[in-house]
Write a structure and sequence with these properties.
By secondary structure, the protein is α/β, with parallel strands linked by helices. It is 28% helix and 26% strand.
């Protein structure tokens, strides 16, 4: 049965390659629709420990964010336009649910951007491509 095993391995490899190609194409399409500059806010303390849209628990000390369309797991470099501070966050939730905003950041991410006092900041968003 080594031949059957080899055929199964080859077919699984083809499936994996196709899946990766489709995911890359969809991610590129979603990115093309993403506004590079927008407004970001941060999660209120009452969301601590609640489930995010991807099923993880929200933790204010993590470097995560909510975006309406980017795939879960996408890493995004967020730069505060006013002071040029930047942070890389991972998308793990959907939102923001306030019109005119692009991202909801974890409290930790907003602290690193030095935006807590402002509450809502203008940011530049760049997808971080994994190597």
């Amino acid at each position: 049965m080594p031949i059957l095993k080899d055929i199964i391995i080859i077919e699984l490899a083809k499936y994996l390659i196709l899946t990766v190609a489709i995911h890359a194409a969809l991610s590129a399409e979603v990115y093309a629709q993403t506004e590079p500059v927008g407004k970001a806010s941060y999660y209120a303390d009452r969301f601590e420990g609640r489930k995010t849209a991807c099923g993880e628990l929200y933790c204010s000390d993590s470097l995560t964010a909510a975006h309406r369309t980017l795939p879960f797991g996408t890493k995004v470099k967020v730069t505060h336009i006013k002071n040029n501070n930047c942070v890389v966050v991972r998308i793990n939730d959907r939102g923001p649910h306030v019109p005119g905003r692009t991202l909801d950041l974890s409290r930790k991410a907003m602290e690193l951007l030095d935006g807590i006092a402002e509450g809502v900041i203008e940011v530049k968003i760049e997808i971080v491509l994994e190597e």
